User: What shape does this take?
Amino acid sequence: MPSRDLLVAVDIGGTFTDVTLQDAATGRAWTAKTPSTPRDPSEGFIAGVTQALAEAGRDAAEVARVLHGTTVATNMILEGRTAPTALITTRGFRHVLEIGRADLPRRDNLWAWVKPKRPVPPGLVFEAAGRIAADGSELEALDETAVRDAARAAKAAGVAAIAVCFLHAFANPAHERRALAILAEEVPDLARTASVDVLPVVREYERSMAAVLNAAVMPAISGYIARLEARLDAAGVAAPLLLMKSNGGVAGAAAIRRAPAQTALSGPAAGVVGARAVCAAAGVADLITVDIGGTSADICLIAQGEIGLTQHGRVGPWPLPLPMVDMVTIGAGGGSIARVGTDGTLTVGPQSAGADPGPACYGRGGTEATVTDAHLVLGHLPDRLLGGRMVLDRAKARIAVQAVADALLLPIEDAARGILAIADNNMVGAIRVVSVERGHDPRDFTLVPFGGAGPLHGCALAELLGITRVLVPPSPGVLCAQGLLAADLKAEFSRTVAEALDGADRTRLEATFAALETEAADWFAQEAVAQADRSTRRVALMRYEEQGHELAIPWPADGDLAVLGADFAAAHRALYGFDLPDVAVEIVTLRVEAAGALPTPASSPPLGGAAEGAITGHQTIRLRDGAVEAPIIDRVRLGPEATFAGPAIVTQLDATTLVAPGWQARMDASGALLLTRSA
Amino acid sequence: MSSCDPVTLEIIRGAARAAQAEMEALLERTAMSAFIREKKDFYTALFDADGAMAVGSDLPIFGDIVGPVAERFPIETMREGDLYWYNDCYGSRGAVSHSNDQVFLAPAFHDGKRVGFVMGWAHFSDIGGLRPGSISPDATDHFQEGIIIPPSRLMRDGEMNEDLLRTFWRNSRFPTQSQGDTRALMAAVRLGEKRLSEIAGRFGPDVLADAFRQLLDRTEAIVRAKLAAIFPVGTTRFADTIDTDGHGNGPFTLRLALTRSADDRFTFDATETDDQAPGPVNLLMHPDVPGMALGLYVLQGTTGQVLNAGAPRAIDAVHLREGSLLAPRAPAPLGLRGVTMMRLLAALHGLVAVAQGGQAPAAHSAYVVIALRGMAGGKRFLLSDGIGVGYGARPFADGTDAVYFVAQENYPAEFMELTYPVRLRAYGINCDSGGAGRWRGGCGVVREFEVLADTAMLAVRIDSVVNPPWGVSGGMNGGSGGATIGGRPIAPLSDGNMLKKGDVFRIETGGGGGWGHPFDRPASDVLADVAGGFVSIEAAARDYGVVIRDGAIDAAETEANRATRPASGLFHRREYRDAVA
Assistant: This one.
């Protein structure tokens, strides 16, 4: 039997499927790039895996695990392509999705806003009598006949999935469980979801939406996973398939089939985990990540190596309050289009040229100026990308940016700088929101730009934020794969307790934690995590009485409630600038966070030498105070401790880094490129 | 004076929006009253160094916020670290129009130079007064509507006037909530002040000042140009009516006239509006409000524009009559001014409809608020529930269903039952409340409560019952709301309705008017509305001519019904007509 040391990470993008193969024992890695196959992504998936194995000259039987980040669920939700789905709800609440939170967004115009179409039309929402009270007691028995009738009617209407959400199910799931059992009898062939299995927390609209979205993506995700497993099996890969969840951890395919909505932020979460891993290797624990792709930028703050989670996430117009990596997404990317309105206003994004036609300089028919075109006009990009496989058309970029410049009555370079300044500023605003919501000063952090367009913006964003350190990961364009390789198995188990801190029943709280830890143990067993690799952490979600938002406070080692109270007050002060000593504190929810450690592959150091030997040419960069000649540096030729000063352009296969004047660059032994400046 | 280039202008606008988002996030996360943290009745704005609102919220009800403070505390005497506060309606000429709304204002400085102001605004749930919640249909005097804070300096040189705060909290029936909300609002304003100072530091105070000036000028220019495109030279008139003041008086008619002169000056005149009401439906309308409201309407679809004090500048003169419903004399009660405000906003669209031959949104219902107060488990409770209504259909889309107002959210049933001694028996769409039309008016909602407290007193506020929201361009009027206790109707604008444990009360809210003739609505859309519980089978046949049998359209009968179309008119309220009041 061969040794099983190979890890396979597969990241499927809009254009290419990237596969990274890594030998966990030696750290040696191979990558393969194959065209994505949007109609059935599993085709490109297996083609990439096969190609990577062939390039490495390794056998499929050597694969220890296959890791995958998927955007299948996200794209279905965003594009409204989810399966026809029905919802069964409590009698009297048929319009729970239609009404929502009556939430006309704060930044939308009252008279212009049009309500988005719900993922389940009201004609496919069915009511069943039966009532659980807020304290979990049963007020009225479930009308099982109504559930049965609804199941049959929904099936007759042609749905592929049914979600169930009853009022106060988070306090007592008995009615939902019974309804699911009835559905299993009546419609065994349809996908089925109970709200408590997705999200056992208060607020019926948000929970209904989570259940509905989960059910609606279930048929497709289930089929997708089945195809992946069948293709892996046929290719001789007998290793487990693990998928990235929105919380930054991975889970086995079986768990994802039950709760596929957990993958809604799978791709971006993988990038954040990858950023944390490459930073950890370079000894950096406090970082702000900016993942800039073609149409959007994802921003995330990591303090002391800890990736924060939020329960206030959204996917498109819908709330999806599952535990997700706490990040902000804005419509600013390399393909964001710059336009001048009839009133003379310059805006950048959220419209994007995407990958097709792409920026004007791609020469695929795009004519509007994009962020990438502005970079090219200013000399931030070389003419050739992807190791020469892609040639940029500088003349087309100039024509597009010139049109913007003419409308603004500005010289072309000022217009290009303006486009970049607006895109940067949008990102800075989002970074500030991420920072303040978590009570941090961005100046204490290292900025980690990644994604294809990220490293072009690193220095500019850092300067705007007062940040003096930028870390560019070894492979900024394929960091998701790094994240997949570095991720642990993760799951959260929580229960609403709603208890005043003063006079709280410690025995009861301990018992609740113990019960949650039992659930975690069951999950560890299902995922086959060895005892030594298991870890759990207790967290209390707390607030002042009558507040609406909770803070997550780690449970004190000895369970001392006085310490817990003091920790909460300190966290409130740090985050919001004040605390309220006279006001009672509540423990709303207890949570156990479980992690199953997966072995981290060894890393391999950079192999090149000094910066002088890495210069492949020179290029003119157009700065505000004039043009300067900057060296073009080939990153793979840089060795440990190689240093150079900005301005410089650093090229590599998957991204281009702009080192601005005033910045010093140093190649770290971990392979990361560290940029610093004096404050 | 440095000028701000177009790129920097866009950056400063973005930075101001980000500062607002941060302030709002802080407020939402730390406030205590459900009215702020669940319903989200709060707003923020940034002002230039002279106090003109440069970046506001998309809310058409703001007047001159800084002026009332500056009158008492001259702007040039203000210092870094100052914090100002008021809720004084008559003392601010309607900048605040009911006393529950607290305005906190701080000047922002950079290098010792004043660069602007920052506002945080939030509705406090109880500030004393006649009844819990401070707003009651029973009020006959503004002094019954809670403690009045004239423009005051709450903080000077880092020193807080704690006694003023203690006095304010002492006047609330829910002092802990009041304290928590005050702290949250103050922290949000301090954060905004810091951000505005940073923006000034980054670009320079002169560039910031020029940016604010450009934002104001740009909004004024766009609003002026759009108004000129809508209104012909001459006077356009529209009038509409609110049902009652809750004290047996009414109806009250708002009469609006907008005049465009040959040299494109705009004059808004509401002097022919009826006299002020003895009950609390008076709207102390700041003269900036018509410009703000029309500004919000005409800024639809413009990217990168902000609603600010430039909009009211597009109206050259505003004439109101003292003693009228829109300019009441102190101390006329003001608590339910929302009823009149919502009717006023629809009436402004009525002006557009008259000028543009019906190319305007139909009328919406006034948002509904109920207050349930009593004792439960030995503790006093106050449930103030803002309930959504239907908005008017538009020439391009259906009216919005079940919305209260900009950015304000409902209370989830589960939240209510965890927090208050009530059970929500039903919460759904009020079928047939959306006015029929090519574009259907938004539907109101049904909310049915069971009382779990031993006793409680209910106040309800529902307007547009006698005079339902009008339809336009062939669209029909929206449906009326109503309230019942145990199936018995109660006065839609009333307080003092006594309830006991087990009583069931039901609130139905009205819908918006329709736009365009209902026969032009695709039959498949009508079928979907019937399947979804928005339109009944009967109304589908009666109003839309669409016959539905066994869940399918009877095409032949529908076609026959739609072949003959009775004459319609510009507006519709119970019948087609050329004017509604």
Remarks:
- Chain B has 13 helices and 25 strands.
- Chain B touches chain A through 87 residues (CB under 8 Å).
- The radius of gyration of chain B is 24 Å.
